[in-house]
Amino acid sequence: MSVQKVLDTINENNIQFVDFRFVDLSGRAHHITLPATEVEAETFENGVAFDGSSIPGFRGIEESDMVMMPDTETAYIDPFTDHPTLNIMCNIFTPDGDRYDRDPRSIAQKAEEYLKKSGVGTAAFFAPESEFFVFDDVRYESGMNTSSYKVDSEEAVWNTNTKEEGGNLGFKVGVKGGYVPVAPVDKQQDIRSEMVRLMQESGLRVERHHHEVATAGQAEINFRFDTLTKTADNLLKYKYIVHNVAQQYGKSATFMPKPLFGDNGSGMHVHQSIFNGDSPLFYEKGAYANLSEMALHYIGGILFHAPALIALTNPSTNSFKRLVPGYEAPVNLVFSKGNRSAAVRIPVAAVTPKGCRIEFRTPDSTANPYLAFAAMLLAGLDGIQKKIDPRELGYGPYDKNIYELSDAEKSEIRSVPSSLDEALDALEADSEFLTEGGVFSADFVANYVSFKRQETKDIAIRTHPHEFSLYFDC
């Protein structure tokens, strides 16, 4: 979309405000809003100034001036504002006109540029399956003398014997009993359908929605794949719509990986493939799962670098409460066709040559999608360039339920890091694949590790409520 087309959209739709947005290290969007009367062609040439020192992990106060440069291709009309508003994603630049090397969106674009320069292909396609919970009540606090949380849902299994207005009507979702039931067990059909409607109006091509496995309102909506940066843009739009539709219904949506103890967590399985023009490069008819050698080497790169990669794809302390055996969590660093107990799954049902892809199942939605998708692509490209064969390294294929293997058999399989600290250690030891082609800078990696270490420290020094159950009577 040209600048003139954006200006025409503002006039034709009586847009009153233009919302310029960017994303921080954690993947959270921020915005500055201009009256539409103040938005001219020069706005897109000069950008919108903001204070980078007020964004955690960006810049110090002595170098705080930064510029948002709008990407006109991302413009869409906000479906929630009372005053007609046009939303536009931006890249971040320094006042000197240089790309800011800590800008996640710029890193994603540099990863796409590096793919083309590598000669491997022309485009990488991504499709995340971002799961979430919709709760009716959310309460938490963390203080000097108190620490607690409580969530609730009309669907939750723990509410089978609670007093409800008008009487308890039953039809609750059991533990691990929530996969695609119909109403009245599934009480959130209309909420998800409204989310889908607004996603479609905002330009997303949605393929389906359904209730997910866990009790208490777990859901999934799938939107169609696109190129790396566009998919990351789409995921931010997706989360924005999910959060705000839930609010409109008097509920609250969260993409937190493990808000409940004892049931499935929320992941973000990421489907990915590489094309050269219109030709798919991951397909080879008759090979294992119809995968080409290039695709196998891509898998090899993902699995080889997985411990470091996970610092970017699962970047929260809560992520590792999901990554434990027993809850369909993909903790095993192996690949397999159609096997959901493997970290990398190759979908085989109703797959065409152009639909041939690999699925990395370990990530979750606390990931910044620009960073996570870029890091996955770079790991895969490293595997292609170095011809890392996952079969030779013992990464599979494992075409059986890994959870049912004997302890001796399981001992031969690498597992994901058990904590964010371990993943950050791995990233510090293995980051060269990220800095190839200048996609990630060494400064970015060091800053990111320091930024995330603070989160692990914040959790480590705080008293946990369960510690009272274990130790108060000592």
UniProtKB/TrEMBL annotation:
The keyword Magnesium applies. One of its GO terms (molecular function) is metal ion binding. Binds 2 Mg(2+) ions per subunit. Residues 13-97 form the GS beta-grasp domain. ATP binds at residues 207, 223-225, 271-273, 340, 354. SMART domains: Gln-synt_C. GO terms for cellular component: cytoplasm; membrane. Mg(2+) binds at residues 129, 131, 212, 220, 269, 359. Residues 104-474 form the GS catalytic domain. It is an enzyme of class 6 (ligase). PANTHER family: GLUTAMINE SYNTHETASE, LENGSIN. This is Glutamine synthetase. It comes from Paenibacillus sabuli. The gene is glnA.
